[in-house]
């Protein structure tokens, strides 16, 4: 096995972008085309002073009513908030579960009471003329 004590020489790559990536070099013909298509300050002010376009009636004045648009967006966001339901906390969930359980217990108790009342006042058929129990004589004088 050979061991070399020399350090290897690493070549680093040159990672630079060309100058054309950051700056454009235009020809005179391209410069003239850009100058023709661009708006200058005077033309913008001149067009603004003319007022709204009179060709179509619907484009007179504001094209977009910002207040109306913002109201619609606000209304839709409020509806989204209403529709999005938050999950209740652990204590609230536990309280709801306990409330349902207590409600079931109350319903069962009410049913049981109804059964007991029905059983108490339920009259069964059978002998109509029952013998009355004979009066018992007291065993002691104090009774």
Question: If you had to describe this structure to a student in words, what would you say it looks like?
Answer:
The protein has five helices and no strands. With 143 residues, it is mostly helical. The longest helix is centred in the C-terminal third of the chain and has 31 residues, at 90-120. 0% of the residues are buried. The model has no long low-confidence stretch (mean pLDDT 82). Residues 82-96, 116-131 have a biased composition (Basic residues).
Protein traits:
mainly alpha; 0% strand; 143 residues; elongated; C630.06c-like
List the helices and strands and how they pair.
Elements: H1 19-22, H2 28-37, H3 41-49, H4 66-83, H5 90-120
Q: What is shown here, in short?
A:
The protein is mainly α and 143 residues long. The protein has helices spanning 19-22, 28-37, 41-49, 66-83, 90-120. Residues 82-96, 116-131 have a biased composition (Basic residues).
Average pLDDT, rounded to a whole number, is 82
- Secondary-structure element order, as H and E? HHHHH
Tally of individual domains: 1
How would you sum up the global shape? Answer: elongated
Helix content: 40-55%
- Approximately what portion of the residues adopt beta-strand conformation? under 5%
Unreliable spans are: none
- Radius of gyration, in Å, reads 49 Å
Per DSSP E runs of 2 or more residues, the count of β-strands stands at 0
Give the biggest sheet.
Answer: none
User: If helices are DSSP runs of H or I spanning 4 or more residues, what is the number of helices?
Assistant: 5
Distance between the termini: 124 Å
